[in-house]
Amino acid sequence: MFKKILIANRGEIACRVIKTARKMGIQTVAVYSDADRNALHVKMADEAVHIGASPANQSYIVIDKIMDAIRQTGAEAVHPGYGFLSENMKFAEALEAEGVVFIGPPSGAIEAMGDKITSKKLAQEAGVSTVPGYMGLIADAEEAVKISNQVGYPVMIKASAGGGGKGMRIAWNDTEAREGFSSSKNEAANSFGDDRIFIEKFVTQPRHIEIQVLADKLGNTVYLHERECSIQRRNQKVIEEAPSPFLDAATRKAMGEQACALAKAVGYTSAGTVEFIVDGDRNFYFLEMNTRLQVEHPVTELITGVDLVEQMIRVAAGEALPFAQEDLKINGWAMESRLYAEDPYRNFLPSIGRLSRYRPPVEGETERGGIVRNDTGVFEGGEISMYYDPMIAKLCTWAPTRLEAIEEMRLALDTFEVEGIGHNLPFVGAVMDHPRFVSGNITTAFIAEEYPEGFLGASLDEALLQRIAAATAAMNRVAEIRRSRISGRLGNHERHVGDDWVVTLQGTEFALKIAADPEGATVTFAGGTAMRVTSDWVPGQSLARLMVADEPLVLKADKIPSGFRIRARGADLKVHVRSPRQAELARLMPEKLPPDTSKYLLCPMPGLIVAVNVAPGDEVQEGQALATVEAMKMENILRAERKGVVKSVSAVPGASLRVDDVIMEFE
Known about the structure:
Blueprint: E1 4-7, H1 11-23, E2 27-33, H2 40-44, E3 47-52, H3 63-73, E4 77-79, H4 89-98, E5 101-102, H5 107-114, H6 116-125, E6 133-134, H7 141-151, E7 155-163, E8 166-171, H8 174-192, E9 197-201, E10 207-215, E11 221-233, E12 236-242, H9 249-265, E13 270-278, E14 284-290, H10 297-304, H11 308-316, E15 333-340, E16 342-343, E17 349-350, E18 353-354, E19 357-359, E20 364-365, E21 371-376, E22 383-384, E23 391-399, H12 402-415, E24 417-419, H13 425-433, H14 435-439, H15 446-450, H16 462-487, E25 500-505, E26 508-517, E27 520-525, E28 530-535, E29 543-548, E30 551-560, E31 563-568, E32 571-578, H17 580-586, E33 600-602, E34 607-612, E35 619-620, E36 625-631, E37 634-639, E38 644-649, E39 656-657, E40 662-666
Parallel strand pairs: 1-2, 1-4, 2-3, 4-5
Antiparallel strand pairs: 6-9, 7-8, 7-9, 10-11, 10-13, 11-12, 12-15, 13-14, 15-23, 16-17, 18-22, 19-24, 20-21, 21-23, 25-26, 25-32, 26-27, 27-28, 28-29, 29-30, 30-31, 31-32, 33-40, 34-36, 34-39, 35-38, 36-37, 38-40
Helix pairs in contact: 4-5, 5-6, 7-8, 12-13
């Protein structure tokens, strides 16, 4: 077995590999850029080597710099994680020439299957059903438009070396094909150092289901069942689960056997993933093979009990797989929510800055018999950089059934505290409560169909609002007693704090009465419904864990005048707890309106202005591209919301802007 391995990656996947290596007694070497000097993976590793400037194309994807780090430290093997150099054949060949083991597949398999164009051709030759498309190289945007018309809109424009949603665009017409080709090509060059593009038919009602395979160097190949990855935004997975709620045993077996046959055909070893598009009749079509560890691998580990990173290391060291196909059973259900530094209230645009608060839920077994796991690469006080992928953490839960795994995820998300940046916790929390998701009736179009105007916050049903009203009323009573004691108004007589209150939240009022005792409080609503509330929450705590009507409830709570700012289940609520007289007067107060910014194009995220497409005096039409902003390796085209005339332009290409900086003004 290896004594020392180098992890040619960063963030949560580098930390994930270090954990397994440490468990196996293997020393680890981290590499880091300027931006990652104080990163968590650097702190966790036994050694760390600086490899260059912050942009990935000056550090993490420069093969020579990784090779220098290997020579400096004497690492015997390299784990590439995912992204960066993980599917780069030249990197695998460089390691082989140096006599260093690549913890991944042979370079020939990477060449055959890591390239999406080549892999689809091989799949077709092997008789595997594939999605229609054009596999040749595309010279320019006009050729992309011509091919798109031949394939038939809508089409998917994809980077051949891409992954993680980078270098992907869906085009529904010639204009989008032209723009999508240019943006995909630029993103692919910046993210992967490879700007080749191909085009395929976009299937409008697909499910994205992938098979995890694992193969050793002795000819043994197995599949570890499937993952459902249909909850996607801009072709980037957001929520994954294992197994799929859609597959039956026969389809699962057929997909698994086909994935293994494909892996054997190219001499594949190590962990890999064969991705399929599955239609409503359970017909499946080969999409691509990822010749690396997948982001969503933890859900497979949770339902099989197999540490995939450990098996990758053992396979690389020449060991045989310790199990056969018949040993790999499905145990329970697992969910994964990807926590991204993306602001859902700003159309999921990237957010950067300092994590002023980062408190993930406690990992391990829960009180209800489930499991919580959080793979992360950040820490409280750390910086979220504009240079890399915006993923902060992968929150996973396991339980015996799918509905129980969802409930564990709901509670874990409500417990997860993140402050200082925009993030998508509210959105994934809302998805976990969405009836369509809960039913398992999902496709890759789920987010586009259910949130066509973007995410505007979750709207909670009355039953949950009533539970939150009971909880906040009880919390307010505790806070009132404390304030009265501090002011000297109360002494030892708690009866001076009123029993009658009116709780207002999400446009709904609840009149209620509180009867407190040493163990908690009973909250009785005007209609006669009574709820028992118990908690050890004290004023000043940002997280309130309560039992309300014998069910757990977790609230993120911040004090505001006459109540609390409450965040739970994807909702961000102002909850006012007032006496009946205060509530009567509050109804008479005018509502304060936000300032009018409709005449300005504001920068929606911190980023770099790549292009400005208009000039003062230009008349613009609804949907016309106005400017392009690059952040976290993604190009974002800003479009006109309505017809208008440009009055002035404040930003120029190359300028770095903050959130809400003015790009241009309209007449």
